[in-house]
C-alpha cells in the first residue's frame, strides 16, 4: 500500500466513524426541521385563509357576483358540513372538519370554523395544499454529504501532514537499501568464488560450509532488495516453468542453511507441475517461504514442503514447527518484523504479497504460538499449465 492509499484508507475510516457519531444529532436536527416546516406551512395556510376572509368581508351584496380568491399552490373551499360544500376548489375529500391544522398523507389543510355562518351561510373555511417532507430530507442529506466531504478532506490533509515524518524516514530507508545493495553484490560474489575455489583445492569443512550458508543468506537478502528496487521499472516476462523442479532446486540451495540449525527439510512434491509465471518472481516466492521457515524454526526441528493436487489446481505448502506468528495481519507490511532477534529487513513478505496480487494466488496462513506456522498457496487456473 503506497502513501496515498494509506492516507485515503485512513481518511475514509475516520470519516465513517465521525459520520456515524453525527447520525444521532442529524436525526434530531431533521426532526426539528420538520417541526419548523410544519409551523411555516401552517402559517402560510393561515395567511391564505385570512386573505380569503378579507376578500369575502369586502364583498358588497349588491354586486352581481363574487370572485372567489384563487392561489397557485393552494386550494380552498366553503363548507356547510363535511359532505356539503357550498363552494370549493378542493378535489379531495376532507376527512376531518375539526378546527385547526391537519396533515393527512400527502396533503395538509387548515380548518377555520365560521361563527354564525356569516359568509355565504358556510360553517367552515378550508385551505389545503400538497404536503411533503422531501425538501427537509433533501436538505438533511445535502448537509450530511457536505459534512462527510469536509471531514474526509480535512482528515486526509491532516493525516498526510501527520505522516510526512514517517514518509521521510521510509524514503531514507529505501534510499539506504538502494545504496547498500550495490555495495553488497561485489564482495558477496568474491566470497562465493573463493569458497568454491578453496573447496575444490581442499576438503570442505564445517567452517567453509558455514561461510557458504551465510553467503546464501546474504544472497537471498540481496535478491529481495534488488527486486524491490527494480520491480517498478522492469517488465518481468512470463513463461512456462516447471514448479516441481524449481522447488527441488531451491530446497537443495537452502539445505546448507537449514543444517546450520540442524533442521531437516521433508518434501512431498508432485512431479511435473507447470505454471505460467515469471521465473524470478517464482524464485522470490519460494525463497522467502523456505528462508522464513528456517529462520523461525527451532533448532533440531523439521520443515515440511508439499506440492499436491487441490481440487482443479495445485496447493503449495510450507510447514514449520517453530515460534509461530502473533500478528498475521501485519506480516505483509513493509519493514515489519515479527521477531526482531531473528534479523532481516522486513521486506520479503511485502514483496511476496505484490507477486500474489499480480497472479491472483491465494494464500492461507495458519499459525499457533510456539507450535509453528503453515503457509498454503493455491494457484489459480489461469496460471496453470496442465
Descriptive account of the structure:
The chain has 386 residues and is α+β, with helices and mostly antiparallel strands. It folds into 2 domains: 3-132, no CATH class; 236-383, Heat Shock Protein 90 (2-Layer Sandwich). 50% of the residues lie in helices and 20% in strands. It contains 6 helices and 12 strands. It has helices at 3-57, 134-201, 206-230, 243-259, 279-295, 348-359; strands spanning 75-81, 84-88, 100-104, 107-113, 124-130, 239-242, 264-269, 274-277, 302-310, 313-320, 362-368, 372-379. A 5-stranded antiparallel sheet has the order 2-1-5-4-3, covered by helices on one side. A 5-stranded mixed sheet has the order 7-9-10-12-11, with helices on one face. The radius of gyration is 40 Å and the shape is rod-shaped. It starts with a helix and ends in a 7-residue tail after the last strand. The mean pLDDT is 85.
Amino acid at each position: 500500500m503506497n502513501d496515498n492509499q494509506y492516507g485515503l484508507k485512513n481518511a475514509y475510516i475516520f470519516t465513517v466513524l465521525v459520520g456515524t457519531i453525527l447520525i444521532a444529532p442529524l436525526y434530531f436536527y431533521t426532526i426539528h426541521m420538520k417541526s419548523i416546516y410544519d409551523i411555516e406551512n401552517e402559517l402560510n395556510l393561515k395567511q391564505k385563509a385570512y386573505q380569503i376572509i378579507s376578500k369575502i368581508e369586502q364583498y358588497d351584496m349588491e354586486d352581481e357576483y363574487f370572485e372567489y380568491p384563487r392561489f397557485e399552490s393552494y386550494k380552498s373551499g366553503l363548507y356547510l358540513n363535511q359532505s356539503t360544500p357550498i363552494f370549493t376548489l378542493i378535489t379531495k375529500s376532507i376527512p376531518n372538519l375539526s378546527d385547526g391544522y391537519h396533515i393527512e398523507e400527502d396533503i395538509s389543510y387548515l380548518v377555520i370554523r365560521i361563527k354564525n355562518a356569516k359568509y355565504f351561510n358556510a360553517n367552515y373555511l378550508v385551505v389545503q395544499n400538497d404536503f411533503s417532507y422531501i425538501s427537509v430530507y433533501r436538505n438533511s442529506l445535502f448537509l450530511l454529504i457536505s459534512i462527510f466531504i469536509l471531514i474526509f478532506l480535512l482528515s486526509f490533509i491532516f493525516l498526510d501532514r501527520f505522516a510526512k515524518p514517517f514518509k521521510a524516514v521510509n524514503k531514507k530507508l529505501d534510499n539506504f537499501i538502494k545504496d547498500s545493495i550495490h555495495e553488497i553484490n561485489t564482495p558477496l560474489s568474491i566470497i562465493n568464488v573463493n569458497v568454491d575455489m578453496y573447496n575444490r583445492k581442499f576438503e570442505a569443512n564445517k567452517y567453509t560450509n558455514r561461510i557458504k550458508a551465510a553467503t546464501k543468506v546474504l544472497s537471498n537478502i540481496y535478491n529481495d532488495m534488488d527486486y524491490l528496487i527494480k520491480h517498478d521499472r522492469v517488465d518481468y516476462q512470463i513463461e512456462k516453468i516447471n514448479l516441481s523442479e524449481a522447488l527441488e532446486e531451491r530446497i537443495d540451495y537452502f539445505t546448507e542453511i537449514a543444517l546450520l540449525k540442524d533442521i531437516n527439510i521433508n518434501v512431498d512434491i508432485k512431479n511435473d507441475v507447470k505454471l505460467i509465471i515469471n521465473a524470478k518472481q517464482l524464485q522470490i516466492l519460494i525463497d522467502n517461504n523456505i528462508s522464513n521457515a528456517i529462520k523461525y524454526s527451532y533448532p533440531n526441528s523439521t520443515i515440511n514442503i508439499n506440492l499436491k493436487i487441490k481440487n482443479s489446481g495445485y496447493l503449495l505448502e510450507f510447514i514449520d514447527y517453530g515460534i509461530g506468528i502473533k500478528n498475521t495481519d501485519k506480516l505483509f507490511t513493509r519493514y515489519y518484523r515479527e521477531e526482531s532477534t531473528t534479523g532481516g529487513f522486513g521486506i520479503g513478505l511485502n514483496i511476496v504479497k505484490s507477486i500474489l496480487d499480480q497472479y491472483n494466488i491465494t494464500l492461507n496462513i495458519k499459525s499457533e504460538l510456539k507450535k509453528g506456522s503453515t503457509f498454503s498457496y493455491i494457484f489459480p487456473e489461469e496460471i496453470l499449465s496442465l
